[in-house]
Amino acid sequence: MARIIGVDLPKDKPIGIALQNIYGIGDTSSQRILAATGIDPGIRVKELSEEQVGQIRDVVGKQYKVEGDLRREVQSNIKRLIEISCYRGIRHRMRLPVHGQRTRTNARTKRGSRQTVAGRGQRRGIAKK
Questions:
Q1: Which terminus in the chain has less CB density within 10 A, N or C?
Q2: What does pTM read for this prediction?
Q3: How far apart are CA 82 and CA 98, in angstroms?
Q4: Rounded CA gap, 95 and 90, in Å?
Q5: CATH number of the domain encompassing residue 92
Q6: Alpha carbons 30 and 10: distance in angstroms, whole number
Q7: Of 27, 24, 22, 29, which Cα lies nearest the Cα of 5?
Q8: DSSP letters along 48-103, please?
Q9: How open is the CA angle 58-8-62, to the nearest 5 degrees?
Q10: Contact 96, 110 (CB under 8 A)
Q11: 16 and 40 share one domain
Q12: Is residue 104 part of a domain?
């Protein structure tokens, strides 16, 4: 089992896809890492030698900000936006979408489940004139 930057990579996946389990490494980054080390992206994680794992570990450690450091940086950036009370910081504080999405409909993930409001909906039993 390959362990890189404190993350266990799945054994049966190709290394090009398995590297994406590390926070901060996406498709392009994993391709660049493998190109720098000269490892075939299609090789499975369980087929890697210790030397190859060491090469990947070195490249990721030296050239990329990943996992804890990256998470800490993102959180500090959000805190800074909240403290200076800019528009994006206010949206973060209110737990609303930040990038200009509409909230009249949608945005259920950010706003939570629907809340019922008294007096809404179709009234039954009242005849129209």
A1: C
A2: 0.74
A3: 12
A4: 8
A5: 4.10.910.10
A6: 15
A7: 22
A8: --HHHHHHHHHHHHHH---HHHHHHHHHHHHHHHHHTT-HHHHHHHTT--SSS---
A9: 15
A10: yes
A11: yes
A12: yes
